[in-house]
């Protein structure tokens, strides 16, 4: 099953309340609730674009895929590319100062 994993993107940015974050950024209460609770079964292209603009990503970055339990080819299915490796939100707190400086250099270089 395909789903929009908005909670993941919001938590990576350091916010706890996904619905509140979405409402502050122009989404209605209804859409914010549906996105937060994985209850949205379809999405308007404009809303998808708004999410991509907000998170500075592509639609593929927003989607996650959970194969059906009995799906035989799940491990090799192309939709597996949508599943991101877990990013530990607390990872930055475990890095040394030198590691943080190195990451900062890489990010600065990529911005250029």
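Q: What amino acid sequence fits the structure above?
A:
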């Amino acid at each position: 099953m395909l789903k929009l994993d908005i909670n993941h993107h919001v938590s990576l940015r350091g916010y706890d309340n996904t619905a509140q974050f979405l409402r502050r950024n122009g989404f209605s209460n209804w859409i914010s609730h549906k996105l937060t609770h994985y209850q949205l079964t379809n999405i308007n292209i404009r809303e998808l674009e708004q999410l991509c603009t907000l998170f500075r990503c592509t639609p593929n970055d927003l989607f996650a895929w959970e194969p059906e339990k009995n799906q035989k080819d799940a491990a090799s299915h192309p939709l597996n590319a949508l599943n991101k490796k877990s990013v530990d939100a607390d990872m930055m707190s475990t890095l040394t100062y030198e590691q943080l400086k190195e990451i900062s250099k890489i990010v600065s270089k990529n911005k250029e």
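Q: And what stands out in the fold?
A: DSSP finds seven helices and two strands in the chain.
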